[in-house]
TrEMBL record:
Region (Disordered) location: 48-76
Family matches, as InterPro entries: Homeodomain-like_sf, HTH_SB, RNaseH_sf, Transposase_Tc1-like, WH-like_DNA-bd_sf
Protein name per Swiss-Prot or TrEMBL: Transposase
Any Pfam family the entry gives: HTH_Tnp_Tc3_2
Organism in which the protein naturally occurs: Octopus vulgaris (Common octopus)
Lineage: Eukaryota, Metazoa, Spiralia, Lophotrochozoa, Mollusca
Amino acid sequence: MAPKGKDLSEDLKKIIFNLHKNGLGYKLISKRIHISVNTVAKVIQKHKDAGRISNRHRSDRPSNVMEDRSRTGSPLAQEVSSLNGKSESVQTVRRSLNQCGLHGCIPRRKPLLTTRHKPSHLSFAETYVRKEFWNTILCSDETKINLFRSNGIKRV
């Protein structure tokens, strides 16, 4: 089955139809609203065929997805199985996490400073930061600084 695209809002469809009614072409409408020409053409054609702008009601089954960003996979799967009395598939749990914005991604690692970067940083600090400022900084060995990588992976 092909993936379902996002529906345009009724306000946007009304704007498209009114611009077309005022004599603008598909390309001008698509440039003005920043959507594709095919989308503009389909909206106008559906209005001509059906005579309405609103989306049709779909008889889909209700979604088992709950909107809560703080949930993770295994507790969510356990809770769904205990509430419904039946086990949900792993794919349903993944979809629910994706809809909440949790994709299990690891953020991109920040590149290390090269030998070319270090002198330029030092010259910038010497040029723009006064010596009195450095005298006010307290240097202690309580701060742990990792030179290359972090201690753990944080998921986004």
